[in-house]
Amino acid sequence: MNATKTLIYDGSFNGFLTAVFVAFEEKILVSDIQKNVVAQSGLFSETQTIFTQIDKAKRVWNGIHKKSHSAIKDIYFAFLSENNGVELLLYRFICKMFAGTTSIATDYSDGIVLKISQLARSVGREKHRMEAFVRFQLTKDEIYFANIEPDFDVLPLISKHFRSRYADQQWLIYDVKRKYGIYFDLDQVEIISLDLNEIHTNSLNKSAHFEDEEYNYQDLWNNYFRSTNIKSRINLKLHTQHVPKRYWKYLSEKKAV
Amino acid sequence: MSLSFDRIKEKLNILADAAKYDVSCSSSGSVRKNTTQSLGDSSGMGICHSYTEDGRCVSLLKILLTNHCIFDCAYCVTRKSNDVQRAAFKIQEVVDLTINFYRRNYIEGLFLSSGIFKSPDYTMERLVAVAKKLRLEENFNGYIHLKSIPGASDELMREAGLYADRLSVNIEVPTISGLKLLAPDKKHEDFTKPMLKVKNEIIQYKSEKKIIKSTPKYAPAGQSTQMIVGATGESDKDIMYSATHYYKNYNMKRVYYSGYVPVAEDSRLPAIGTQVPMLRENRLYQTDWLLRFYGFGVRELLNNDHPNLDMDVDPKLGWALRNMEYFPVDINKADKSVLARVPGLGMKSVHKIISARKFRKLNWEHLKKIGVALNRAKYFIVCDSSKWEHRDMEGTKIKGLILQNSTGKFRKEYSSQLQLFS
Ligand code: SF4
């Protein structure tokens, strides 16, 4: 009965939490937890498919929450890093939390705790960057549209920020890498999956989908950006430290540089 | 349509270029929540949406309404006698630009200043009109920073604060004698009068709000000012004493220091091409920080014996080296206020030390883990270890050792005003 098992889940956070629940309930010796799209059957271990159940996921969530406020955030953020093997890492972390009587969430001398807090921090940084670097372009059907290609799956994390800031305009932020987006229809934010074949980063090529004025505003912004430089103070090293090159493709002000 | 875009582009180039010497870009500290399904929200921390090539944060659309000016302040590109292209935005043009930039997530809001055309009041009235339109017609909740025009009337200043998050008057020249020399058209009172008005309104609105909940907000992010550094031969003492005066008497949220960028040949000023004093600017920011957060008094750091900050070491280290009798400090016993004075200890480390030492006595290893800059701190502290580095060394010797072990370190700080202490 003590053979190890690989749990296969649907890739969602709730799916992962359900897997944790099942593992606890059925006292499974977990050898790995994998998304169904990437699952490779382990040579020596059985697999078990997990069906996401919100109520089970919730119980795990609440259980962690009771143990530590900061841990729940770290776990969610680290999960969104999509880091290879992060599920197993998180599973071990959760086991430790439930085993101990005190909160271990801030014991950074523990390797797992440290790793998770580092992952969470990277995801947090990416979240802030996306909130700053999203550049909307106005389409002909009055939707403010932006593409992003974040290192981590941060769309769920940035939704609230944009929701409260742009409450009177329709907007859509699309993750090119993960092929889904969040769309605000003036009423609520929905997750939508689309397969866009045209990638509308702020490129030099104009697209017929956008308002004519759109390019005028981009042009104005580029001009503005250029006139804010004080030549005698230039420091490009500091500049790229703040805006790493991999983000330049979003920024219309960087395309002409 | 595109014709007018070309015209706007031209204006934007001129009026953004003229505004860029104002260094403050802060867009935080406000509390304007989006509660009505309208546009914008500035309740959180300000976001930098981009960075200029000199590494400064771009978070606001920072422009002048016009660069026509009836005055002739020597240090200013916009001054009357300077031969530059002039332009003026219409009120609606600024509103449209702000809204369209904001909707595309380029900016957190608007920072609007202006040359003085016709009269201070005529100018201030237009600045207020832009803010009013944004708030009332566009339901805009983003950040608005308005420049208070020196000499503007109390009535206009009162109105300005109802729509702006922050108001600022740039003192620019830290001494009254310098002001007479460089800005002969302006009186010292022209600057202080609007400052005083804003300060008093903030106090009044706050106390009314305690009684009547519906009292509107007045300049919720407070007021700030800026001083030019290195234009008039003023000492660091002059600058910081005057900064302290403004913090204290006008409840300033921030004082900014801006290394003078020569913009004209003028015998009263450094020649064009003179290097911008960026290291000095950084030292002043560090001093400002020590005064606001580390419990230092300005007289401890700058006085008649010591009217200028050291360029080779940061002001805290400089103070410590002149006051070796305070050291060494026992990491496991000293009060927070004493720890805050140890070179190499930032406030974050101080807090970590205080909470960590409740569990165990701290030694060098612990301090290293916490993130203390030991290469500096080790000369000034003792901890749970028999080894310590002080050995009755003299200040100059310690300084030599520290500098030796941190080559290049200070180069890095030249242009970064944010990374104040490591
Ligand atoms: S009044 Fe203001 S804009 Fe005009 S010259 Fe003096 S500093 Fe420049």
UniProtKB/TrEMBL annotation, chain A:
Pfam families: DUF4130. Residues 86-253 form the DUF4130 domain. InterPro entries: DNA_repair_put (IPR023875), DUF4130 (IPR025404). It comes from the Bacteria. This is DNA metabolism protein. The lineage of its organism: Bacteria, Pseudomonadati, Bacteroidota, Flavobacteriia, Flavobacteriales.
UniProtKB/TrEMBL annotation, chain B:
Its cofactor is [4Fe-4S] cluster. It comes from the Bacteria. Residues 64-239 form the Radical SAM core domain. Gene3D superfamilies: Aldolase class I (3.20.20.70), Photosystem II 12 kDa extrinsic protein (1.10.150.320). GO terms for molecular function: catalytic activity; iron-sulfur cluster binding; metal ion binding. It holds the Pfam family Radical_SAM. Keywords: Iron, Iron-sulfur, Metal-binding, S-adenosyl-L-methionine. PANTHER family: ENDONUCLEASE/EXONUCLEASE/PHOSPHATASE FAMILY DOMAIN-CONTAINING PROTEIN 1, TYPE II SECRETION SYSTEM PROTEIN K. This is Putative DNA modification/repair radical SAM protein. The lineage of its organism: Bacteria, Pseudomonadati, Bacteroidota, Flavobacteriia, Flavobacteriales.
